[in-house]
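Project standup — Tuesday

K.O.: blocked on the structure for the chain from last sprint. Re-posting the sequence here as requested.
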Amino acid sequence: MRKAFRIAAVYAALVSLQSDPATSQSFPSEISEDLVTDAYVYLLGRALVARQEQIDLEAHGVGYNAIFHNELASASFVNPNFAVTNSEAWIAVDDDTGVLFEIPEVEDRYYTVQITDEWGEVITNLNERNYPLQPFGTFALVAQGSNADIPEDAVRIELRSSKAKILARFALENDPEGAVELQQGYTVTALGDVDVKPVVDLPMFENDTLIGVEIFEYLDALLDRTPDVSPVAAQLQAAAREIADAVSNPAQRDAVDDFLMTTVIPEFNRFAVEASGAQRNNWVGTLVVGNYGEDFDIRTAANLVGIWANARHEVIYYVTARDAAGALLDGSQTYVMNFPANALPETVVNEFWSLTLVGFPDFMPVANPLDRHVIGTYTGVETNADGSLTLAMGPEPVSGVPESNWLPTQAGQPFSLTFRTYVPKDVVKTGDWFVPPVDPLD
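H.V.: unblocked you, prediction finished:
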């Protein structure tokens, strides 16, 4: 799986599909396999967001322009974040109607309101770092070029399409009740009746059984009125349209679907977990996240593994499903992570850090007797006598490691770890600091 778009290969593949008579009767030539791969991975990124829109609207029981507050320690999307409150809203606007979002006054607590487009790209984060002149209060979300009437005191935020997703978070810190009280201060108000674009009626699919060739049947619906800021969007959409035309041939459709199922999807699943960012100690550091440029494959990987990834100035994630030796993490085994005293995680963040454990490959919480899924800055982890820090993962507490430093696993359940650094320092952004390996205990 490539980490960057190769325009020459895609152009050649387009020519191949259009001019090689053999491709009309059988699977495209070798270079056309690159075209199929790129077109599929590109569309999958959009399909994952459309799938989440379906899931959210059904699960939350609320429609557009209505905020939903997740209960603490629960979430309905993959790789949930248990160190913060989670409030969600699907925003819908039209040319004449905007939506107001209200942020309560906040003091001495991390918060951010992430606004994300229909491709999973971050539009902006509303907080005191990005909006120092109005860190809280009223924000008006409108369509580009809209003439919607908005309050004079509202900060105007133009969306990229008629829909956007809001993820609003307060750090729990040591005061979850206070965080929940603040959470209730978020409000969403539509300034009239909005003409809402219909949801894409995709067939439901799971992360371990991704949608196949039928994704190309939904190409028009996925691309309709959803502009993409990627600088390679036009080329990739042209490629996707060529593949959609090609698979109208039943024989070619079957061959493409077989190629997707046996090659592209397994390779992409591996790429998403193991190779979609900077790599060290068998961790993948998402140094490109939230805003992806030409790296559409990394964007799709983020949408698969942890949808709604935030911009790197807000948080940088590290993900692994493997131990120091490269073996898959197994809930029946016990592991430790050791941070030297001179490289503790709190020294590389301006806010806080957290370590979350979820199942693999579904990336959903793993049930355990403590109902514990995260440890970090505000959970009472304890350093060792020499100032170092040891974290443990396993089915039972680890001798010599404080229970506060233990994430329980489930025997027989593979798992994945996500390490988050909130408002990371430059040493994290440049890749000069990395999470230590996950070492198995004999």
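K.O.: great, moving the ticket to review. Confidence is low (pLDDT under 50) at residues 1-25. Residues 38 and 311 are 24 Å apart (CA to CA).
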